[in-house]
Amino acid sequence: MYPLFELMMANQAEFPVQVLCRVLKVSRSAYYAWSQRKPSARQQENTQLIEEIRIIHAESDATYGMPRIRAELMEQGWAVSRRRVARLMRLQGLRGVCRRRYQVTTRRDLRQPPAPDLVKRQFVADEPNQLWVADATFVPTGAGFIYLAIVLDVWSRRVVGCSGLPTNFSHTGA
Q: What is the tens place of the pLDDT at every residue in 79-95?
């Protein structure tokens, strides 16, 4: 019943209450009783709780989600359930930062021997362009992972070359 009343209040500037009541099949007396009613104790407590949630969320640099916010509220003396905190956060559009899951990017084939160590772990060079080393890794971004490959000159420790491709990249060249 309350969503109808909220809809009526939102459209009261455009349409007369009498018309809204007739169209939505609600009595005017019920609407006016609802509109003049003071917030319940639960609504007042939710208002205070939302304010506390907003403060905790802001102090955490918008990283805390429901579990940590609930723990902070419990420390402050609030007796509040997980679902209530989650519902109030959802209504306010507050979300925590999700931890990334560990992603295995390399799986060694145990049947293959490892690549030979041509420099015998001696990463030193006496002049430029004598020894280059390379590595490839994944870099997480908001759009997904990106392959990043770099080549370094050991003598100067400068990047000789690099390339980055999204993980969904499909190369069709010859």
A: 999 999 999 999 999 99
